[in-house]
């Protein structure tokens, strides 16, 4: 009886000590990492997390020289869950930074609790127009790219390539519609078809037959993740690869090219980063990444690596004083990082000013597949929404 | 109107229909005979595709992939039935839906644990990648044509089996009136196990056939399950003939609707409005059709008689 009471007492004491300890450990830097880890797009979250953790490694395991605690949250690609997870990280865990976010619809829902409580939110992938323009915030940063940035690049590329009649396809949701709108903003020729497929659709045979019959000069599409595997396989199987040039965004990338295989070869992508860019920061990043994780880093891994670097440099600049938010913001804005992308700085709306490239899917000698940079498309530029942002 | 293109789209619709048929045949029998709602049916499709892709990748033989994937899903179906679902037979539909939904999530995570989060590579077997010219100027991908034929053949064999064999007769008897069949000496328990295995094997076969066309990834069985439920409701629960008819109907109407509705709306409305509206309407099309059919035939098009 007494023994068991004792046991209960010591257990309670243990819990209490743990509680008090965690509540007073103030020199810890707490980072909430929210991304999509489960479901059929969960591979994005994994790439992002791996990239981020390599950034932590490169900072000696301590971002900004502080003991770093990373709390992982899975948004399951659902805006309501992303919101709930973010709110818990802000209110219960008192995270100093919220980072991650693979998808714009999740980010738009989840941003409010973080920004309202003046917690810095740094996106490692999603870059919706609203947060770049009308609803930009002093507490929001995107290290990746504004969603339309590469679509606008694609429009410029197709105009310069002399294509007059272009066919467009994307899934029917916000980001799909924004992508094609971005393309149309810069493309000078005629759009001969603009098709939005159902979100739960996995077979595009009917739409591809229509595309073939329309006989366009070229096609531009946006089918991210698993959609991209379906689309690229079926585009190839319909015999279109040899007939119609295909350019895409986030459709043939290093998360899904292995599943596309031969069907992807010859496909071109517009991107702001590729693993083969020639600069010392990228060489170090790619070498160490492959050594640690055994695969080549994607755009998702690269952006999150930069997020870790950004936090590290900013916290070092303010010497670990996280209470002075204005000083911390100025430190973040200065972006003292060596991005694998090359020169990196923030625009007035806290989105990057960077360049973009055309890359092509190729089969390597060892029968694996990868993306090779073919040309630089645009020099360093900001996005189209910065002018709508009140921050100057 | 371009009739060659129309014919191609019609074939595309039939090909979607055959996949839906393979999925719905098992589901409708399970629901008809065992009065059991199985939301984990899409998982058999997914497992079939995963096993096929893995075996194809390891051996390089697409036929071998099918020879492993179909029996594997048959055994999986029987195993799941024995270990887990059997306990849910006498419970109400809510318990069955919750239980099988749990299984669905279990299988989605299981394939991630085994094969990782990224989609698996699976290509069309060499030699079947080309297109064949069915009529002058009307080319259709050979592999899709073979899928269509394989599905139709399976449907035909299944129909013969259900309609003209003793075991098939017992299955029909079970679907019509389970209690009466049992009292006439049919071992409904063994029967239901076989039906469950058969349904799982058909779904696994559909997954095997689809693996070169679609992304083999976790959760791939979920969207198709929803359409399959629409099919069995339209066709009449427990009816194989109903499943054949309804899957072809849904396949063709969904495909043609996706293709031709936007241009019809374009003619009637401004481009901006029709562009915003047509994806929404085409998404609803099969459900509207289901509502219309149910309004006039509550039991579905070709319902199995239930007592």
Topology:
The complex is a heterodimer of chains A (392) and B (307).
Chain A: H1 2-24, E1 28-35, H2 42-58, E2 67-74, H3 79-91, E3 97-100, H4 104-116, E4 120-123, H5 129-132, E5 140-142, H6 149-160, E6 165-171, H7 174-186, E7 190-197, H8 205-214, E8 218-221, H9 225-237, E9 246-248, H10 257-260, E10 268-271, H11 280-293, H12 299-317, H13 325-334, E11 345-346, E12 352-363, E13 369-381
Parallel strand pairs in A: 1-2, 1-3, 3-4, 4-5, 6-7, 6-8, 8-9, 9-10
Antiparallel strand pairs in A: 10-12, 11-12, 12-13
Helix pairs in contact in A: 2-12, 3-4, 6-7, 12-13
Chain B: H1 3-34, H2 41-59, H3 62-83, H4 93-115, E1 131-135, E2 138-141, H5 142-164, H6 166-176, H7 178-183, H8 188-210, H9 221-235, H10 240-268, H11 271-296
Antiparallel strand pairs in B: 1-2
What does this structure look like?
- The complex is a heterodimer of chains A (392) and B (307).
- Chain A is α/β, with parallel strands linked by helices and 392 residues long.
- Chain A has 13 helices and 13 strands.
- In chain A, helix 2 (42-58) runs parallel beside helix 12.
- Residues 15-25 of chain A have low confidence and may be disordered.
- Chain B is mainly alpha-helical and 307 residues long.
- Chain B has one domain (3-218).
- In chain B, strands 1-2 form a two-stranded antiparallel ribbon.
- Chain B starts with a helix and ends in an 11-residue tail after the last helix.
Give the overall shape of chain B, derived from the CA principal axes: globular
Percentage of β-strand residues of chain A: 15-25%
Record field, number of beta strands of chain B = 2
Strand order of the largest sheet of chain B: 1-2
Q: List SSEs of chain A in N-to-C order.
A: HEHEHEHEHEHEHEHEHEHEHHHEEE
What summary fits the major beta sheet of chain A? 8 strands, mixed
Which blocks of ≥5 consecutive residues of chain A have pLDDT under 50?
15-25
């Amino acid at each position: 009886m007494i023994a068991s009471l004792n046991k209960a007492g010591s257990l309670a004491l243990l819990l209490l000590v743990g509680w008090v300890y965690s509540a007073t450990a103030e020199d810890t830097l707490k980072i909430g990492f929210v991304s999509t880890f489960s479901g059929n797009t969960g591979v994005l979250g994994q790439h992002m997390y791996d990239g981020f953790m390599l950034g932590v490694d490169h900072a000696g395991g301590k971002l900004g020289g502080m003991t770093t605690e990373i709390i992982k949250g899975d948004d399951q690609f659902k805006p309501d869950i992303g919101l709930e997870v973010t709110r818990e990280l802000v209110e219960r865990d008192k995270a100093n930074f919220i980072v991650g976010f693979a998808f714009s619809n999740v980010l738009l829902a989840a941003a409010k609790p973080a920004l309202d409580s003046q917690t810095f939110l740094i996106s490692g992938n999603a870059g919706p127009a609203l947060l770049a323009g009308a609803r930009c915030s002093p507490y929001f940063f995107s290290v990746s790219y504004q969603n339309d940035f590469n679509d606008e690049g694609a429009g410029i590329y197709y105009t310069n390539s002399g294509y007059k009649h272009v066919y467009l396809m994307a899934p029917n949701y916000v980001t799909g519609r924004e992508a094609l709108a971005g393309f149309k903003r810069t493309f000078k020729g005629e759009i001969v078809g603009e098709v939005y497929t159902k979100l739960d659709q996995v077979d595009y045979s009917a739409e591809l037959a229509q595309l073939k019959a329309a006989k366009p000069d070229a096609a531009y599409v946006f089918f991210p993740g698993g959609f991209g595997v379906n689309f690229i396989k079926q585009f190839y199987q319909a015999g279109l690869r040899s007939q119609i040039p295909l350019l895409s965004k986030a459709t043939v990338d290093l998360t899904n090219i292995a599943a596309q295989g031969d069907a992807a070869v010859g496909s071109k992508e517009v991107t702001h980063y590729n693993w083969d860019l020639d600069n010392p920061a990228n060489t170090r990043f790619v070498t160490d990444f492959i050594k640690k994780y055994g695969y080549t880093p994607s755009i998702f891994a690269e952006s999150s690596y930069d997020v870790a670097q950004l936090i590290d440099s900013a916290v070092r600049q303010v010497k670990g004083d996280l209470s002075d938010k204005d000083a911390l913001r100025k430190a973040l804005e200065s972006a003292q990082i060596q991005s694998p992308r090359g020169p990196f700085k923030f625009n007035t709306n806290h989105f990057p000013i960077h360049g973009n490239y055309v890359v092509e899917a190729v089969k390597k000698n060892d029968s694996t597949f990868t993306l090779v940079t073919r040309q630089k498309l645009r020099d360093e530029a900001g996005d189209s929404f910065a002018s709508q942002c009140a921050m100057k | 109107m371009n009739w060659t293109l129309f014919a191609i789209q019609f074939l595309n619709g039939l090909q979607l229909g055959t996949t839906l048929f393979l999925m719905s045949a098992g589901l409708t029998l399970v629901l008809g005979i065992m009065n059991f709602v199985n939301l984990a049916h899409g998982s058999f499709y997914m497992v079939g595709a995963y096993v096929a892709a893995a075996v194809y990748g390891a051996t390089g033989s697409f036929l071998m992939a099918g020879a492993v994937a179909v029996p594997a899903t048959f055994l999986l179906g029987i195993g799941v039935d024995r270990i887990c679902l059997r306990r849910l037979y006498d419970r109400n539909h809510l318990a069955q839906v919750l239980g099988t939904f749990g299984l669905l999530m279990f299988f989605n995570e299981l394939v991630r644990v085994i094969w990782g989060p990224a989609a698996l590579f699976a290509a069309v077997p060499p030699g079947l990648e080309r297109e064949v010219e069915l009529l002058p100027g009307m080319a259709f991908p050979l592999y899709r044509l073979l899928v269509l034929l394989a599905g139709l053949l399976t449907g035909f064999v299944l129909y013969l089996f259900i309609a003209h064999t003793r075991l098939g007769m017992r299955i029909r008897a079970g679907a019509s009136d389970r209690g009466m069949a049992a009292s006439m000496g049919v071992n409904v328990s063994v029967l239901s196990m076989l039906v469950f295995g058969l349904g799982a094997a058909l779904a696994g076969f559909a997954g095997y056939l689809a693996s070169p066309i679609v992304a083999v990834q976790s959760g791939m069985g979920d969207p198709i399950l929803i359409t399959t439920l629409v099919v069995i409701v339209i066709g009449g629960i427990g009816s194989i003939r109903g499943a054949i008819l309804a899957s072809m109907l849904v396949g063709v109407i969904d495909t043609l609707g996706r293709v031709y509705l936007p241009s019809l709306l374009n003619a009637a409305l401004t481009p901006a409005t029709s562009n915003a509206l047509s994806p929404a309407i085409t998404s609803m099309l099969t459900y509207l059709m289901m509502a219309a059919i149910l309004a006039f035939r509550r039991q579905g098009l070709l319902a199995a008689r239930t007592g």
